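Problem: given the chain below (145 residues), write out its structure.
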Amino acid sequence: MSKSEAADLVLAARKRKGLSWAGIAEALGTPLVWTTAALLGQHPMTGEQAAKACALLGLDEAVAESLQLQPSRGTDPAIMADPTIYRFTEALSVYGPALKELIHEEFGDGIMSAINFRVDIARRPDPDGDRVVVTFDGKFLDYRW
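Solution.
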């Protein structure tokens, strides 16, 4: 079974069971965003994690096997056009050069790792409407010659 087929089954089972992503992550004892990405096919899960997730979702061994496979990371270009996802592209298009300059000024010549990386999402109440807070937390990797 492909990871995308497994992801479709995960999405349907989550909806059918009335489970939230946060509830699934809590049951697995794994970070929320990582868990969601893994169940959508972007990270391999351990055998134990996959078995636990499938038991919770009522999915079979074929899905558990797929969840353990090494992914081909990335997103279908059609999905990138989704308004929610596109806003991240837009934000990085506008603020990316400034963030690069600020990282170099603060840390030196290097990059933020997306491998040694954590990401989190939170809601912050605001009188003008709740705010979405996304935190990227990546290890600084300096260029070494």
